[in-house]
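Example record for the data management plan.
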Amino acid sequence: MAKFNTGAAGVAPVSPVTTEAVPGGRTHEGAPGYLRDARSELFVLAVSNMVGEDTFYERAGGRDDRFRALVHRVAVEDGDWTARFLPWLRGEANMRSASLVAALEAVRARLSAGLHGGNRELVASVLQRADEPGEALGYWTSRYGRAVPKPVKRGIADAVRRLYTERALVKYDSGARGFRFGDVIELVHPTPADDRRAWQGDLFAHALDRRHNRDKPIPASLRTLRDRAELLALPEGERRTVLATPQRLTAAGMTWEALAGWLQGPMDAQAWSAVIPSMGYMALLRNLRNFDEAGVGDDVAEWIIAKLTDPEEVARSRQLPFRFYSAYRNAPSLRWGHALETALTLATRNVPSFAGRTLVLVDTSASMTFGTISARSSVAPVQAAALFGVTLAARGDRVDLAGFADGVFGHEVRPGASVLREVERFCARIGEVGHGTRIADALARSWRGHDRVVILSDMQTMTGHHATEVTTAVPASVPVYGFNLMGYRAAAMPTGSANRHEFGGFSDACFRLIPLLEAGASAGWPF
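Corresponding structural encoding:
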């Protein structure tokens, strides 16, 4: 049996996001653009698509139409790939809206093509939070009417059995939602899960009573809801006395928003201290400023810090890395800085440290400073790019970080430096070298024998000043990794082989492919 003489000698590794070898289009800035195959285009778009939101080069409607068309095509042509991709998109890439829309559109396309297997499971796989069954029905009915196909109903019912609890009802069931819990239950007819049968049937019945304003007693099996009703019935003058027993708030499933409205007074240090033990990770992250302004004590702050820096809590929270930068910008005091730095490090665990010399280029052009990553975010694409760029620089002692637009500026980052502080310092330099996007020129000016190049950009480059293309700006023997943050249609270079590779999105999930390629192994899809 052959032990050493195996495989093809000298074969370069390949990666999954592939383009044509000869440019068949143009970037939005007019340079030669390399078009991807359908799966690659869908992947790069999906990992950056917040759905329904404008980007610099695409209006929301056109971008969403392109997304749906790609989903329809791929779901019919490659159902197995779709069934693996969408749960990963929701779970590891943390793209909630994109995965939900993609699953529903995939099922619609597959049913239209006469493909009936696996559709129920596809829908259920992307619904991972208790408000998402209602979101799914809201999306479907707004586009296709109230005739919901059985696989969609059954997939949603599967998710309802898994996700609907007393605390979920408290948190997500309100008149502000188009589909309340009761509406979902009436439409998809879930049966209680076997391990929840003792109380989930009562919960479904109670959700229907709530929806239809039927004045019926809360079933005895729903202890949290009964505790909550008892708490809410307290006279206004007695409500603050409950703050002395935080366990009572926890038992009643009181969120901080509900507590703030119920107290009818300020959320002072006592109120925050009482509700903080029951707050989720994201709620803590978003309220650091409020904790400081209320004067929350150091003992409570230490509890918050312990939760923010717990590796299991970070992993369970599924926070995109830029969320920690956003929290850092919004928190006025320094007592959270180290905790956020630690949490960010945990959230970027897939970003590697490289051997040899690495050039990292961060796009600071106008298209990268347009708007924010999502409607609920205060972070611009360029800030997310800078976060990854500084993270790479801080993890290696031979990394040269540069920003580029029409020109290039170098930015020194000491190994082990604070990523959050360095991102602030880097972003203060946006606009320093113009507002265009000249990737080839930036490569030609910055590459000095580096072993690899990482480009963090929307990849919508202008033509180089000296007729140099991105793919030829450095020697073919040097790996170039484009990290596409916006998912536009045309790529700036041919990718998938020959030391030219492209990934995308706002999570660190795709970075895990780079070490495989560096080791000479081909990298498949990250799911």
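Summary line stored alongside the record: Residues 60-77 form the longest helix (18 residues).
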